[in-house]
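ugh ok so i messed up the first submission bc i forgot one of the chains. this is the corrected input, ALL of the components this time, i swear. 461 residues overall. if the numbers dont match what u have on ur side tell me asap before i send this to the collaborators (the ones from the other lab, u know who)
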Amino acid sequence: MSTLPAPLAGRLALTLALAVSVCWTARARAQEAAPADEVEAPVDDVDTEGAAPSAARDRTAQDPSADELPEGASSGPSLAERQAAARRGQVIGRPSGPDPSDPDLPVSMQLMIGGGGIIQPGSLDLALRSHDYGTPGGFFTADATITGRAADWLWLGGRFGGRGRFYTRNDGPGGHASAFDLMAVVHARFQLGRVFEIGLMVGAGAAVVGVMLRDVLSAGVWPRLTGGVQLGLRIGRGLRIVARFAWDYCTLFDIDRYGSDLELGGPSGALGIEVRS
Amino acid sequence: MRLVVASSLALALVASCARPAGTPLYRETFEEVCDGAPCGWEQVAGPAGGAMFVETIPGEHGVRLIGDGVAISGPVSGDEVIGGSIPASQLQAHIIARCDDGAILSIIVSMQDVAGTPIDMVTSLRPATTWDGDRPVLPLTARDPPITPSSFSDILGIIIRKEGPGACEVDYLSLASPAQPFVE
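and heres the new structure output, hopefully the right one now
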């Protein structure tokens, strides 16, 4: 058996040591560069079946299935996504921005009905009472509002509405008072999560206000103002239940030769539906 | 349970029908105009032109009396004949009116008692100067002779008289009795 010369054997040993060192260094760097969710996958994320889709694998019992959500809606990040984000020091939750389908629905129409109360009766109420009429302190309302989005939070449009009161009389026919108004409205809307929104709405315009007693109509045109808070509850794509609490100025002065005033304003509440298209 | 519901419904039905439909013994709304004056009414005292047809509030009309001593006489169509008799002491007048300060209104009701004797029942009031507030129901008392008949069977005529300064407006007048508030 022949033997290598001593200088050659020393060079081979040195080369082998260098090669082993380079391999260990490269392997360590490769492990450091690997994604965290691949090297630290949670135990519950392990697919024991091997055939389940990734979406179903990430979902928990508390999350609704995708087919239970309205079209365009999402239950937000899965539990696994939130856990992975937490390990990276990040906090993510359900989406809080506006409905992702909203940008495609820039026109809104609201149909609402409601009622309100007369806080300060007009002098016509007193005159009617002296004429043996009953003057209930409430009125009913109905209106339709169409607005278009000018900004993410600002909607501009118009409203056509009506309101009325009924008067009864002990001995004889009763009467009624009503107003039909047309107003320009400004609606500032703020989304609170994916479902709820709150808004402030103000409007100004004019109303035809009148009273009919014994089939005789007395009417006039007078300025009309409104302002209030509006709440929205999203129930589907482009569909919301809305509730409004407002204060309305709706008065007609000097309706008769005694200078009587007809009051149809005051605090009111309304409930309705909003459709976007 | 069904018996209770049925009984409640029957009771509600009876209660809703308890008030007889009809009109008071006498009622004038001054809503019809004939030749510039409320139909059937004529001025019987005071200066000429002292009574005129006016609108009190939108849709409601009445008669305006101007000047001291103006009186108007109203129609009695015969519908006021009472099928029987009612206590005269319970006769009440409901008048919806407004007067300028200091003016007084009198309502004079000519009636016939059960013996056929005519008698006048009267009430006076000083109405509010503005159209606001409730208008009270006033009792009538015998004027001449000053003895209230025990009962009456017919209304023969109505007179509204105004005394004092300014003007009065009368929108409604009715006569009724709590014992028999409506004619069948």
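quick check: Residues 2-18 of chain B form the longest helix (17 residues). that seems consistent at least. Helices of chain B lie at 2-18.
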